Hints:
The complex is a heterodimer of chains A (117) and B (110). With 117 residues, chain A is mostly beta strands. Chain A is 0% helix and 50% strand. In chain A, a hairpin with a 5-residue loop joins strand 7 and strand 8 (73-78). Chain A is globular, with a radius of gyration of 14 Å. Chain B has 110 residues and is mainly beta. Chain B contains no helices and eleven strands. In chain B, the strands form two sheets. In chain B, strands 2, 4, 5, 9, 10 and 11 form a six-stranded mixed sheet that branches. Chain B has a five-stranded antiparallel sheet with strand order 1-3-8-7-6, with no helix packed on it. At the A-B interface, strand 5, strand 9 and strand 10 of A face strand 4, strand 5, strand 9 and strand 10 of B.
Amino acid sequence: DAMVIQNPRYQVTQFGKPVTLSCSQTLNHNVMYWYQQKSSQAPKLLFHYYDKDFNNEADTPDNFQSRRPNTSFCFLDIRSPGLGDAAMYLCATSRERGAIESNQPQHFGDGTRLSIL
Amino acid sequence: EDQVTQSPEALRLQEGESSSLNCSYTVSGLRGLFWYRQDPGKGPEFLFTLYSAGEEKEKERLKATLTKKESFLHITAPKPEDSATYLCAVQPNTGNQFYFGTGTSLTVIP
């Protein structure tokens, strides 16, 4: 089945130690998103790529960066994780940004739960 | 400012006891409103898309409706397997962003 796959499912890192989370998709979707979700909170959009065009949310900390080397893969890099960065990180895709097809829903991976020691 | 508010935060129902979840939204032009189901430790699973006021969608025991200011997710005769967090999201007419509410945590007791 076509899907969005996130690795690893659980990641533990030390305070200040860089960490990279990965996401791959077999849906061939143009748009890929990274969300941060803390317990009992709404998913918060960090940034998204439309193809190779990177779009950063205004309140996304500089500590968070992303790379999309090709259509299928997208990475979230946290340069110096703090305790407040412990959360579930969700990757999502959607097909297109066009006027007719823009109502396509997002398809989510199962997330990576990040813990900071 | 685009905003999504869901209520109640948590809902406990007896099996078979029907109820509704609410999603109120403020958005500068609605491109679409989406309902998702999220199980613990999993990513959100898509349920419905609604595009315009008056629209309704149904799937098994779930029915979603949309007005110009809010959407309802009606659950008819729920079963324990319907227990999950239900998330509402809106996409404005401009940009690719999806704005989520904080969800309603539904527990259905046998």
